[in-house]
Amino acid sequence: MSAQVTIMGLGYIGLPTAALIASKGIPVQGVDVNKKVVDTINKGKIHIVEPDLEGLVHYAVQKGLLVASTSVKSSDVFLVAVPTPFKGDHEPDLAYVEKATRMILPQLRAGNLFIIESTSPVGTTEKMAKLIFKDRPELKGKIHIAYCPERVLPGSVIYELQQNDRVIGGIDSASTDAAVRFYGRFVKGNLHKTNSKTAEMCKLVENAYRDVNIAFANELSIICDKAGIDVNELIDLASKHPRVKILRPGPGVGGHCIAVDPWFIVSEFPSDARIIRLARQINNNKRDWVLKKIRSQANEFKKKNGRAPVIACMGLSYKPDIDDLRESPALEIFHDLEKERFRVMAVEPNLRKHPELEITDTLKAVGEADIIVYLVAHKEFRNLDPGSGKIILDFCGIAR
User: Could you read off the pLDDT of 319-361 as tens digits, one per residue?
Assistant: First the structure.
């Protein structure tokens, strides 16, 4: 198989994947509808924050191995890594996947490999195959079509793209084998063969499993609050059981995977995915519970002191030690407090600046705040000494 690769979508997954493949000496064309993104990459720079990515992009662009464009050219491998957002009542929207597929259609030729990496409902790969063959019936049986979801952690994307195992499922065995050969050129982890529907469900199940476990911890934190029990102490003690490992509660669940993927299962199997739906509801409702707690403390402070308190929201990202704000419950809580006209400061040590937020320095916020609200367990918060007289609300276990 020859080496020219086209990556559709140059976001949090597409760009690192393109840069990694190009760094192996394989020429890559990256396609994105955002011209500003394309221009940035062609200068050897990046539009997202991810360790080691900028150096890799700069190297690949400088060597002529990575070129970004808004249009699609002929290639040997086409990889779709575009968003799959919601529409309506948590229904997956495949418009971006379909648009990317239609952009590729005129360039497809016999022998090509077409891969979807975008998180997708079960049956999406087969649906895109039907779309392709309806428009290009002469390609049926002559191209390979497969699905291969990513499994990466923001902040470690480059490492995990290479080291993590991958599940690869084609619409037929020949497609699976072709995709395995392709990923084998840059992935060091094991490559597990299956069919496209199982691979699609595997991605959704992995994140639904994590969501259910987080929901258990979040529900437990609410119960412990009512019972007057320190939930973090309880979790430490319960987890000393050799077969028990409870996760830490937080203000909800964020990010583009755990907060989103379970709904893809619920949408397709509404009467059967009962635990999965309930876990999503518990984790979504946790944000409202946290907001109610903050609001109660703020009103009590005002009643006692005759003035509105200054509230420091410690952490805005969706998980510790990254700058990613996607679907972040902490960010939603900050905005809700703003809308209610509380005096609130945004503290996010992983962001130096933001076009829509005024980021306050950590020490300045701790010094000036009356109420310190820990929403994300960033490492910068671990050894902070707020001093006496502060109200501490810890929703992530950082102040233990």
Answer: 998 888 888 999 999 999 999 999 999 999 998 888 889 999 9
* pTM of structure: 0.90
- 164 to 149, 150, 190, 279: CA distances (angstroms): 11, 9, 7, 27
- The active-site residue, picked from 99, 148, 257, 353, is 257
- Give the model confidence (pLDDT) of 82-140 as tens digits: 999 888 888 899 999 999 999 999 999 999 999 999 999 999 999 999 999 999 999 99
Nearest CA to 393 out of 320, 298, 324 is that of: 298
Residue 201's H or E segment, with its range, is helix 196-227
Question: E strands within the chain?
Answer: 5-8, 28-31, 66-69, 77-80, 86-87, 91-92, 113-116, 144-147, 166-170, 191-195, 310-314, 343-347, 371-374, 391-394
203 catalytic residue (yes or no): yes
Residue of 35, 148, 203, 313 marked catalytic: 203
- Of 3.40.50.150, 2.40.100.10, 3.50.40.10, 3.40.50.720, the CATH number of 5-189 is 3.40.50.720
Does the active-site annotation cover 257?
Answer: yes
